[in-house]
Amino acid sequence: MKHFIFFFFLSIAIYSQAPEAENLVKIHEATTIEINAIVNPIKGSFVYNTTENKMYFYNGTTWVEINDSQPTAYTGHFIITATGAQTISDLPFEPSSITFVAHANIESTTINNDNGVGNNSNTIVNAFGTMNGYARNDNGTINQQVIYVGGNGTSINDISRYSNASQCVGIRYSNQNGDNIGLTTANLTAFTTNGFVINVSSRADNLLVMYTAYK
Predict the structure, then answer these.
(1) In which domain of life is the source organism classified (predicted)?
(2) Domain residues for 49?
(3) CA dihedral in degrees (35, 39, 43, 46; nearest 10)?
(4) What pTM was computed for the model?
(5) Which of 12, 15, 33, 107 has its CA 20 to 30 A from that of 1?
(6) What is the distance between the alpha carbons of residues 105 and 125, in angstroms, rounded to a whole number?
């Protein structure tokens, strides 16, 4: 009897590992044209694209390819030139967290000169420093922080410091005494399906911001 029971369960285990073709779940097939013609697809829907031989799901906004080889990190940059909302898109995924880094008086991607003013200028154009920030999606709540430390190219009597728990970008330009002579700050307001949105609350100078986004 014991041998019979063992053989019975062993048979079930073997069968469960090799189902018949008709027992498999069939995903609806469609061409790219047919998929794009679907009116008001339901979020979470799956479809097999016969044009590309790939699986897709609908995330509520667009059809997204299901691909294990897709990147989980993406590095890019944007330039702050004005206050207000700024949308960064074209990321290959919806980010869950982003880190930021920027340096005072680096305003573009191609610079190879001094600050363009006379020596010992006690102004914004002679300020220097480095900021690091992050923004993270905590179950729908955006958690963010920025820190900065810097000074001025004139003889340094004091440093400039800045941190803010509701921003992800922050530069505090200073004179030689560490006095605040201008701020460029921004906070992240939304994660999108292919990027994020920041709101620039103040802009004392243009600023190139490098970022790394994580899926």
Answers:
(1) Bacteria
(2) 14-65
(3) -30
(4) 0.71
(5) 15
(6) 6
